[in-house]
Design goal:
about 260 residues, Rossmann fold, 7-stranded mixed beta sheet
């Protein structure tokens, strides 16, 4: 009987403690909800980057500016340089590759002059940032090829996690394009060959635009915009740029065609 009484006293004590703790929890002040700045500590830096380094440098397409303001570049850079995510310069991402300067990403995207419903091919997925900017436009289908298996896999998982459902990534030699999905209304190349790859020119649709840096590896190149009209390419030299070299068996084996 005594042991039962002790047991009931213990149960009562535990219930009392539970009630006191519940009342304290309900009555205690709660922390305010996280502010937008706390949720995304890079938001201000991203907006300043667009205002100063992109819009301030002449990019005017409102959809391109919106995409640049939206895509979280800090998710596409290595952790050891994340503090530089919104600086206006390229960053190394491993395997001899880089994530392009934000201004260059915006400029090349604007040069594509994309329209709703068009199909875009990107050669050189890299970190996935340029592909994300294209997909963020929301009105084009994006196909992206990356020659480095690890980068292709990482980018595909990251882009899928960010919800870009109109974006397709595969590993392969971008020199040969993506013939199963051709023709493309626009093609963007984010590494520099020393000539225009013939397969890419062949996969460009009538009225299509192709933006590509061309020049010797390890040196300055020119950014070219090609427009296909009546089956012929018209070339426009947009100015000097610097990109990592275009790699792969395709570029190494085909006889070089001089830059326009």
């Amino acid at each position: 009987m005594a042991s039962n009484r002790k047991y009931l006293i213990l149960i009562g004590f535990l219930l009392l403690v539970g009630i006191i703790l519940a009342v304290w929890f309900i009555a205690s002040p709660k922390s305010p909800p996280a502010s937008p700045t706390q949720v995304d500590s890079f938001e201000q830096a991203r907006q300043e980057m667009v205002e100063q380094a992109i819009q301030g440098a002449g990019i005017s397409d409102p959809e391109v500016l919106r995409a640049m303001r939206t895509v979280p570049r800090h998710k596409f850079v290595p952790l050891d340089v994340i503090d530089q995510a919104y600086d206006n310069h390229p960053l190394a991402i491993g395997y001899g590759q880089t994530i392009s300067q934000p201004y260059i990403v915006a400029w090349m995207t604007e040069l594509l002059e994309l329209k709703p419903g068009e199909k875009v091919l990107e050669i050189g997925t890299g970190s996935g940032y340029q592909a994300a900017v294209l997909a963020e436009l929301g009105y084009v289908d994006v196909y992206s090829i990356e020659i480095v298996p690890e980068l292709a896999d990482n980018a595909a998982h990251l882009l899928q996690g960010l919800g870009y459902t109109r974006l397709h990534v595969r590993q392969g030699d971008g020199y040969y394009g993506w013939p199963e999905q051709a023709p493309f209304d626009a093609i963007i190349v984010t590494a520099a060959p020393d000539h225009l790859p013939a397969p890419l020119a062949g996969q460009l649709a009538e009225g299509g635009r192709l933006v590509i840096p061309i020049g010797p590896p390890g040196w300055y190149q020119s950014l070219w915009k090609f427009v296909k009209t009546n089956g012929e390419l018209t070339a426009y030299n947009m100015g000097g740029v610097t990109f990592v070299p275009f790699t792969g068996a395709g570029i190494e084996n085909e006889g070089a065609t001089p830059a326009p």
